[in-house]
Each structure stands twice: as structure tokens, then as C-alpha cells.
Design brief:
Layout (H helix, E strand, L loop, with lengths): L2 E5 L3 E8 L5 E4 L2 E4 L12 E7 L1 H11 L3 E5 L1 E2 L3 H13 L7 E2 L6 E8 L5 E6 L13 H5 L3 E4 L6 H13 L3 E4 L3 H4 L2 H7 L5 E5 H7 L5 H8 L5 E5 L5 E4 L4 E4 L13 H13 L5 H16 L20 E3 L1
Parallel strand pairs: 1-6, 1-11, 2-9, 7-8, 11-12, 12-13, 13-14
Antiparallel strand pairs: 2-5, 3-4, 9-10, 14-15, 15-16, 16-17
């Protein structure tokens, strides 16, 4: 098994779940939670306190797969931070490189979830997970991981560059799942791709990095920068290449979505968890899709994460 560092956010997710008052109302191409009136008091069916964030979700994937998972992220000395530490301990994740920020609160999301449709709106106060510049890339020398898995650092391109360069110096492989703010720094982002071994993006994100409309076009252009590319396309599945094999894949199964939070994290980290366990490129894509499906079938961003020991059924996947 591998040693994998997850660098990213840690959040407490507070779910407000209701079957009636949070029903969405369609307005043109968008929808709003239209049943909640300003100034009103609304009875919620259920409240659930969970833990999430890209760094936490991915670390749980790696730990459940049997890898040595190390989390690097910021929290604060508060109840939300205590909840995150409890989860890290429960999952057997190394929290030695967890940082506590003063005069900050632990990142928290309030998720309004319509229990009937699975639609949700997320209100987030990033708090301590808003910044990452306090981390030293030289900690990688102490950890000596095989892989560095990075989700969004809220557009902190300087920290990304420091970690990516140092990881390459130490011959540590990198998987990167950039976020919205990194994608607004296209020129800087493209320059960082030369350090990346696996890039995981969705179709819309890929189109912000390279030209192209079709998945095959986007894959071809991204292949000029990164050896292994995975581009997801929602219910349409996605496309992936390791430079030798290219696969077009569908979804694992048409499951009812209970909560879509963490689906992307589950896919990306699920792929790496399986791939670094010595599984084939194709099998790792299948597991990634199954992991994502399992997560959206349960409440919370990581409750459904698989262990890699499950017996998986066939899914649409074709070598092209």
C-alpha cells in the first residue's frame, strides 16, 4: 500500500433536511428554494452534523482502502474542529500535520437539502480553510509520501507551485483536482501541469484550461501537459487516458441521488486509492465511478466511501 498526503480543506457540514419547505422552484434555467419566505419560521424534518471538505473526503478514501493517509489542512480550536479530529482518529488518518489557526473558525457549510429531489444549496464560511500559505512544502520531506493528492487551495497558486516543485524534487507523484479559483488563473495553472501525474477535471473545467468542445478534443489537448487525464461529464460518464489506453465510460449505475455532496472527491480519490493499490487503469476507473455512486446514495460527503473489498458489477466502459 502507499503513503498518500491529502492537501485541502476540512469543513463541518451541517445538513438541514426537509421534504416540503425546501422544494425548489424553477425560474427560467435556474431554480431556487422557493417555499421559504423571508421572516418566516420553518420547521425542518432533520438536522445532521457531518464532516467534509476535499482534503478530508479524499483522506478517508485512502484510509478505508488500506493506504497510509496523511491529512494537511487548517482548522480552529472550536467544536467543528473537534468533530473533524474525531473523524480523522476514527478513520485512522494521520493528523500530525493538521494546523490550528488563531482568530479563525473551522470551515463550516450549511447545506439546505430537499429530501424529495436530492437538490441542495450550500452556504459556506471557509474560515480556517480559506488559506494554505502557512504550510511548508518541506514537510513533504518529513512525511516521505508516495503521492500528493491536492484539491482546491482556494486559488493559492504560490502554495501550489511550492508544493508541486518540491514534490517533484523528492520524486513524489501528484494527482490534482483544481477548483473554481484555480481555474480562473489559467496561465498559472497551465504552467503547474508539468508537475502533475494525474489530472482530474470535469468537462466544463477542462474547457477552461484548453480549447475544445468534445471530450476527445479536450483529452487530446490536456494530454500535451499531463500523462494521465480523467475528464468526467456527469450523467454522461466521462473519458480517460493514461497515454497508452483510452476509455470512454458511463456511470456505474443509475442510483437515486440522496446527496450529491462529495461526488467529485469520491471519484478522484477513489481512482487513486485503487490505482495505487496495484489495480489496472480500467479497474480503477470502474471503482472511481462505484465510489462516487456509493457516496451520492447516502447523506454526507463521505459516509458511502467504499473500501476496495466490495464486489463490483459491470458498468459501461469501452476502450477507444
Amino acid at each position: 500500500m502507499a503513503r498518500i498526503v491529502s492537501l485541502g480543506s476540512a469543513l463541518q457540514d451541517i445538513y438541514l433536511v426537509d421534504r416540503d419547505d425546501l422544494a425548489s422552484t424553477q425560474i427560467g434555467e435556474s431554480a431556487i428554494f422557493g417555499e421559504v419566505l423571508v421572516g418566516s419560521k420553518v420547521d425542518i424534518d432533520r438536522i445532521s452534523y457531518e464532516v467534509g471538505g476535499g482534503g478530508i473526503n479524499s483522506a478517508i478514501s485512502f484510509a478505508r482502502h488500506g493506504h497510509e493517509a496523511i491529512f494537511m489542512g487548517n482548522i480552529a480550536h472550536d467544536s467543528a474542529g473537534a468533530a473533524i479530529i474525531k473523524v480523522l482518529d476514527r478513520e485512522g488518518i494521520d493528523s500530525s500535520y493538521l494546523n490550528f489557526l488563531e482568530r479563525k473558525t473551522t470551515g463550516t457549510s450549511v447545506i439546505l437539502l430537499d429530501a424529495k429531489s436530492g437538490e441542495r444549496t450550500i452556504l459556506t464560511c471557509r474560515g480556517a480553510s480559506e488559506q494554505f500559505g502557512n504550510f511548508s512544502e518541506k514537510d513533504l520531506e518529513l512525511v516521505q509520501p508516495d503521492w500528493l493528492y491536492v484539491t482546491t487551495l482556494r486559488g493559492d497558486m504560490d502554495t501550489l507551485e511550492r508544493f508541486f516543485k518540491y514534490a517533484k524534487k523528492l520524486d513524489i507523484k501528484i494527482m490534482f483536482n483544481p477548483g473554481v479559483k484555480e481555474l480562473t488563473e489559467t496561465e498559472k495553472l497551465v504552467k503547474l501541469l508539468k508537475y502533475v501525474d494525474v489530472l482530474n477535471v470535469n468537462k466544463s473545467e477542462a474547457g477552461k484550461i484548453v480549447p475544445g468542445v468534445l471530450l476527445t478534443e479536450l483529452l487530446y489537448h490536456l494530454g500535451n501537459y499531463v500523462p494521465i487525464i480523467i475528464i468526467t461529464d456527469g450523467a454522461m460518464g466521462g473519458i480517460a487516458s493514461d497515454g497508452t489506453e483510452t476509455y470512454r465510460f458511463g456511470v456505474y449505475e443509475d442510483a437515486k441521488i440522496k446527496d450529491a455532496t462529495g461526488a467529485g472527491d469520491a471519484f478522484g480519490s477513489g481512482f487513486l486509492a485503487h490505482f495505487t493499490a496495484g489495480k489496472s487503469f480500467k479497474d480503477s476507473l470502474v471503482f472511481a465511478s462505484a465510489n462516487s455512486t456509493a457516496v451520492v446514495s447516502k447523506l454526507g460527503a463521505n459516509a458511502g466511501i467504499l473500501t476496495g473489498k466490495e464486489k463490483l458489477h459491470l458498468m459501461p466502459i469501452q476502450k477507444i
